[in-house]
Design goal:
By secondary structure, this protein is of the alpha/beta class. The chain contains three helices and eight strands. Strands 1-8-7-4-2-3 form a six-stranded mixed sheet. A two-stranded antiparallel sheet has the order 5-6. β5 and β6 form a beta hairpin. It is elongated and about 80 Å long. The two termini are 29 Å apart.
């Protein structure tokens, strides 16, 4: 059995913890594809986050496994593996194959960072009008508009594009794949939890529609 997991040198992290100005947005699904000849999703999964950073891997795998188990799947994290050859796709594939010889799983779910986009947007100055009410007596009040000018500024954001792939262990083929994006996650823990919720939801939808 051959498991075609392809890596690039940029897949060295899944998420980074960022504390930037502005509001964080949850995961957005960009695209989903499923093998047309597969009707049922594997239910016993080995979960592998492709990242050389152990803390990132641990949190992502834990979040996915927890969500999968909640939804009725059997799932196990790949777990600690600081010496895995992340930048050598052939060697990594062999390591995963060796793991599958000792662990029962009919599917492997992987998640990896495809791209990180840093964006800087210029926001021109804005004039905001706020209603202000002032009491002028026991039974009377007057309302006027207060003007406030917000100066022009630059807003910076970072978008993380993730690829999630489900492989069938018998054929070694990818049978489901999702691309998603997250902008300015407030923390790795929250980002992993929200990502797991969306990924498992979309995985189930794809095999029930």
């Amino acid at each position: 059995m051959t498991l075609p997991i392809y890596l690039r040198s940029l897949l060295t992290t899944v998420f980074a913890v960022l504390f930037l100005a502005g509001c964080a947005s949850g995961p957005e699904v960009k695209s989903i594809s499923k093998a047309p000849d597969v009707s049922d999703a594997p239910r016993n999964l080995l979960v592998l986050a492709i990242s050389a950073k152990e803390n990132n891997r641990t949190q992502m795998e834990s979040a996915l496994v927890s969500r999968l188990r909640t939804e009725g799947f059997q799932a196990e994290p790949y777990g600690p593996a600081p010496s895995l050859p992340w930048e050598d796709s052939d060697a990594l594939r062999e390591k995963v194959n060796e793991r599958l010889q000792t662990q029962t799983a009919d599917g492997v779910l992987t998640v990896s960072l495809v791209r990180k986009n840093r964006q800087i947007e210029y926001v021109p100055n804005q004039v905001v009008f706020n209603p202000v009410t002032t009491n002028i007596g026991a039974l009377a009040s007057v309302t006027y508009m207060e003007t406030m000018t917000i100066p022009d500024r630059y807003e910076e954001s970072t978008e993380y594009i993730l690829r999630t792939t489900l492989f069938d262990t018998d054929s070694g083929k990818a049978i489901w794949q999702m691309f998603s994006s997250t902008i300015d996650p407030k923390s790795l823990e929250q980002a992993a939890r929200e990502f797991a919720r969306v990924a498992v939801r979309e995985l189930q939808k794809s095999f029930t529609e």
